[in-house]
Amino acid sequence: MASPASPYPAGSAAFPHRGLVGIAGLASHEIRFLLDEAEQWVRLNRLPQKRDDRLSGLTIINAFFENSTRTLLSFELAGKRLGADVVNMQVAQSSMKKGETLIDTATTLNAMHADAIVIRHHSSGAVQLIADKVDCPVLNAGDGQHEHPTQALLDALTIRTAKGEFNGLAIVICGDLMHSRVARSNILCLAALGAEVRVCAPPSLVPSGIEAMGCTVFTDFDKALDGADVVMMLRLQMERMTGQFIPSPREYRHLYGLTQERLVRAREDALVMHPGPMNRGIEIDSNVADMADRSAIIRQVEMGVAIRMACLDVLTRKVRGTEGWQ
Amino acid sequence: MSVGPPLTVVNGRIVGRSGEPVAGAVRCEDGRIVAVGDVAPQPDDVVYDAKGLIVAPGIVDLAAFAIDKPAFHFGGISRAGLMPDQSPPLDHPARVRFAAQSGKPDFWVHPLAAATRGLEGIELAEFALMCDAGARAIATGRQWIADSGTMLRVLQYAAMLDLVVFCHAEDGGLAGNAVATAGEIATRLGLPAAPPEAEALAIARDVALAEMAGARIHFNKVTTAGGLDLVRAAKDRGLPVTAGVSPAYFMLSDLATADFRTFARLQPPLRSEDDRKAVRRAIADGTIDVISSGHDPRGPEEKRLPFADAAPGMAGAETLLPLTMNLVREEVIDLARAFSLLAAKPAELLGVEAGVLEVGAEADIAVIDRDRPWIVDSREMEASAGNTPFDRQPVQGRAVAVFKGGMRVGVKQAG
């Protein structure tokens, strides 16, 4: 509930969107609103009794058309901790191809009167397509190479918790920018929040025009790291990469692996992040990933549950009849 | 073939090869034009009063993917070249013969023979036999032939038979599985994208091979500034190179895909705004010879999908004429040149005696109200599917009557 001192417009004007399909289209104050909302859930999740029943009686469907362990678990916990009935639907890609179309699936889900649907799909734009066909809020848990907004929000919350404000922060995102929805959502989110975003990858993995999203492109990781406050590594999808986009994992590590020696170029207190799961010894060395004082990788997972609770809470306020949100 | 009584279209403004349309009539006998200009109908003629509207040659739609008569007739189109990308492909004389008959009597289909068996880009198809069966040209289909040796032999063989080879200009290695043009929009949407240079690379190679082979080559859709520069340079050197385009590429840029609109998923993909302007300049300066619809109706089962999973293509037959008329209204080209792009040049490439209103030509005539306003509505199209990126757009220009071989066809009456 917005207090009198709230910096946000009252009621639903603070977040006037039906769902969360992407960071694109969100104003910076709307992003900040979600981050602030998540703080209460960070606190709750640290208590022995992690339960709030505000979503009691509501049904949330997690429809995952692409394999996922962590994101699915995170959304499931988020829904359950808010008291909702959570159902998971995991659909292998192959059976989708044989069977009904995505639109039919969307219609089916809609007919089951879910109060929110969380979707992950392997094709860019698929979540928007479903969101246009259903009556309830839709949350994007990753669509193809397009967006993964809750990942960007949880990363922003992790950074804010460690560093305070975003203005003046130099944040490096390094890895497969071409195929990464995490990179796209993070660039949009961090640029909107006022950070300096540097992206770094071999030229074969830099998509054309990415600087227009609000970042500076580097191919030399050492230069990108110079004075950085945050270093965010992306997962290298090795099965897709080798020989096509990079010569070999060891060559990749040679140029783009985050090692202790390399990390010295960043600020002394630079935060190390990775969305997981990590390829230890390739994009990130174990002794970096496990640095107790610098690595925020475990913190990211913690923030993930809180962010998803905040999103589910905010997006179901209308159906719950919360004052100011009808 | 049945031939009706003689026909005279009177009170028209006749579109010629150049200049403004002139008042007059067109008289036809036995399916051919016998007089144009200041002629009067004879006693037994069927008389059609054009009431001062434009009388133009029936549009010859050079490279359609589907035969969809109601849509073609709506659009003032009386003939179409049919791309070999059918199921099964037009790579066998019997299939070509069947396709060549499939529109008669009121619509003529000119099959384009597959350059390679199964359009796989490996083995040459039977060009001469397919020609005898009614094929009017050779086409590589939707794809580029990756093997330069194979492509050279296709061109040499076609040159021997004096057939034009219609090429798809997208370098396969660069295009890969791309569904968009590399740039800010594709990157924001996270779509697999290819650089626009994929087109120029393909054109550069194919022009070189065609020159070696002494073959005539036509690029179906040239959509980038770089590709158009190469076509322009080849023409300047006197090579028999021609280029076509579809209205989408001079009307739209990749911005049209911004909401993952699959109706704007085309092949080649929509380009940048700079390339769109380059296409307009190339139409104005004569680098582009043909405007065709690329008609490819696709129903919701193929279009209501995530962008990269949707089939490419648009239903374009109905909007070909009005969108080309935009170029006339904006004074990029004049009316005579519009019908060179829409009819005369495509007929010439197909080697058919049509596409012009001249004595001896086949009596394919479209009576056109060039300024009539209407609104494109994807739900109410004549095409077998309504996949148009121009949905809800107001346009101007409608065919009010179409004659094929001197016989009125069942055109949907405007108004």
UniProtKB/TrEMBL annotation, chain A:
Q: Which InterPro entries match?
A: Asp/Orn_carbamoyltranf_P-bd (IPR006132), Asp/Orn_carbamoylTrfase (IPR006130), Asp/Orn_carbamoylTrfase_sf (IPR036901), Asp_carbamoyltransf (IPR002082), Asp_carbamoyltransf_Asp/Orn-bd (IPR006131)
Identify one Gene Ontology CC term for this UniProt entry.
cytosol
Looking at the keywords, is Transferase present? Answer: yes
Q: Pathway, according to UniProt? A: Pyrimidine metabolism; UMP biosynthesis via de novo pathway; (S)-dihydroorotate from bicarbonate: step 2/3
Catalysed reaction(s) here are: carbamoyl phosphate + L-aspartate = N-carbamoyl-L-aspartate + phosphate + H(+)
State the UniProt keywords alphabetically.
Pyrimidine biosynthesis, Transferase
* Superkingdom of origin organism: Bacteria
Q: Which organism is it from?
A: Novosphingobium marinum
**Which residues does L-aspartate bind?**
98, 181, 235
- Residues bound to carbamoyl phosphate are 70-71, 120, 148, 151, 276-277
Enzyme nomenclature, EC number: 2.1.3.2
Q: Mind telling me which PROSITE patterns this protein's record contains? A: CARBAMOYLTRANSFERASE (PS00097)
Identify the residues that the record assigns to the Aspartate/ornithine carbamoyltransferase Asp/Orn-binding domain, covering every copy: 168-314
User: What's the subunit arrangement here?
Assistant: Heterododecamer (2C3:3R2) of six catalytic PyrB chains organized as two trimers (C3), and six regulatory PyrI chains organized as three dimers (R2).
Q: What is this protein called?
A: Aspartate carbamoyltransferase
Residues annotated as domain Aspartate/ornithine carbamoyltransferase carbamoyl-P binding: 20-160
User: Which Pfam families does the protein's record reference?
Assistant: OTCace, OTCace_N
What is the role of this chain? Catalyzes the condensation of carbamoyl phosphate and aspartate to form carbamoyl aspartate and inorganic phosphate, the committed step in the de novo pyrimidine nucleotide biosynthesis pathway.
A GO BP entry is: amino acid metabolic process
| GO MF term list | amino acid binding; aspartate carbamoyltransferase activity
Family, as annotated: Belongs to the aspartate/ornithine carbamoyltransferase superfamily. ATCase family.
Kind of enzyme, top EC level? transferase
UniProtKB/TrEMBL annotation, chain B:
UniProt enzyme class: hydrolase
Name by which UniProt lists this protein: Dihydroorotase
Alphabetical keyword list: Hydrolase, Pyrimidine biosynthesis
Molecular functions per Gene Ontology:
allantoinase activity; dihydroorotase activity; metal ion binding
Q: Does the keyword Hydrolase apply?
A: yes
Query: Which residues are in the Dihydroorotase catalytic domain?
Result: 108-224
Give the source's domain of life in one word: Bacteria
Q: Which Pfam families match?
A: DHOase
Q: What is its EC number?
A: 3.5.2.3
Q: Which GO terms describe its biological process?
A: purine nucleobase catabolic process; pyrimidine nucleotide biosynthetic process
Species the sequence originates in: Novosphingobium marinum
**Cellular-component GO terms for this entry:** cytoplasm
